[in-house]
Amino acid sequence: MEFRLGFRITLVWFVLALTLSGERVEAQRAGCKNVHYDLAFILDTSSSVGKENFEKIRQWVANLVESFDVAPDKTRVAVVRYSDRPTTEFTLDRYRTLEDVKQAARNMRYLGGNTMTGDAISYTTNNIFMEQNGARPPARGIQKVAILLTDGRSQDYVLEPSKAAAKAGIRMFAVGIGEALKEELEEIAAEPKNAHVFHVTDFNAIDKIRGRLRRRLCENVLCPKMKVQPDRFKPNSTSYGLEEVPGFDLMEYFNVKDILGTRVDESQSSYVRLGMMPVVQQTEDVFPQGLPDEYAFVTTFKFRKTSRREDWYLWQIFDKYGIPQVSIRLDGENKAVEYNAVGLTKDAVRAVFKNPEVDNLFDRNWHKIGLSVEARSVALYLDCKHIQTLPIEDREDIDIQGKTVIGKRLYDSVPIDFDLQRMMIYCDSKHAEVETCCDLPTGPCPKKVVTEAPPVRIPTPTPTVAEQKRGPQANCSCPAGEKGNIGARGLPGLKGDKGEIGPKGAIGPQGIKGERGESGKLTSVKGDRGEK
């Protein structure tokens, strides 16, 4: 409480000083709210949809565009309806404000007829995403996105039109309702399929995927591809077997390359020992377009003796004035894990995890922390076990004009001593939940225990032509050679850490009673008699 109050007072004085000096404080915020598109909806209005369900589609479109910043220089929106043939409801340059787009979506007309999905995809590629109809030139770097919604099987082919759309740079999402075929949705959707295909049971459920669809739109723009190991995710998850996912490998971005350990078996990965110098990067170099609205922070690390009781930031982003934007704090004294972020309507959003299960983190063993950060909540996973989910309020996008740091003490920013295997941010918040603990020595994955060296198979050499002509020779057994000299003495190993103070020992047995000493004699010396 005192820390938060002190922070607010400091912030008030800081802003007041800048105001008096006439200097403006301008944050360069980056994140999903600042990603812009040329966005087209391709909507199935065939007879199988029906007027009542089409009303739900209209409302769904109006709700979904609310999460975009609609303007001529930001996100532009178009709509294509299709049944027997496709029809433009409105082009990308028709409406300039969010309210105009929402009103136009609510006024869309229902057609009825067959389901010619392939024709609608080709029509959108060749007509909607054209500069004469409001699409911006490729040099502007605005991503072209199409969201196709259908409730059944197409009556024409969709694969070739979808390939042509992808070749034209259009990122296609496929939303299926009811009897829509998964195979056909995957033919339509962009790669990776699991990030671009959505399916719900009926029209009443389409609003439930609105948030997920919006996040998927954002994450592939903000997040680069990150390589992962084949055993990274649980076998029953949709991410199992993937070799690349959107995210940030922070150890790679921070150039942390001094490897101390090695993969000695199938469970333990190599690691680095931090604490000698600050691990800091410019935020623009790590997150050039900010962080997605939802993400997962995952790290595998181990406290050292000096860091167990420290109060420090495992990871933090702060702006050019030192104001925190997002951080994960480890409070060794109170044994707590704390998530902090800059708030949309208040100074900071805060979630503190403190319970007996969190206490286990603060020993000197390897542990994995996973934080699943979603729109309204943060969930903590410790060693692949869900510990707690806490609510949070709305967050602001981060200011990327600052620095990102790994492992610094709270009150003086001194580097913290700890061992680190890996630290990454997934752009899918669910990855904190589906991570395995195969990188922990005590993890659940099978380990290969080697008790003795495997036998070496020595191949039998093929005899030469001359040897084959000589025929077999007599077998000769040679005596063993003399014993070699003793090898040179190896280098001394590294000095280990000083051990902890041990427990107080047991009280020893009572000693033997000593002998009685001799009695002393009181003697006095008679002084000289004084003069009379």
Automatic annotation (TrEMBL):
Domain of life from the UniProt record: Eukaryota
What are the residue boundaries of the VWFA domain, all occurrences included? 38-213
Q: Where is the region Disordered?
A: 456-532
Provide an example Pfam family for this protein: VWA
Keywords (alphabetical) are:
Cell adhesion, Collagen, Hydroxylation, Repeat, Signal
Q: Which residues form the signal peptide?
A: 1-27
Report the PROSITE patterns cross-referenced here: VWFA
Q: Into which family does the record put it?
A: Belongs to the fibril-associated collagens with interrupted helices (FACIT) family.
Q: Which PANTHER family match?
A: COLLAGEN ALPHA, COLLAGEN ALPHA-1(VI) CHAIN-LIKE
Identify this protein by name: VWFA domain-containing protein
Q: Which organism is it from?
A: Ameca splendens
Source organism phylogeny: Eukaryota, Metazoa, Chordata, Craniata, Vertebrata
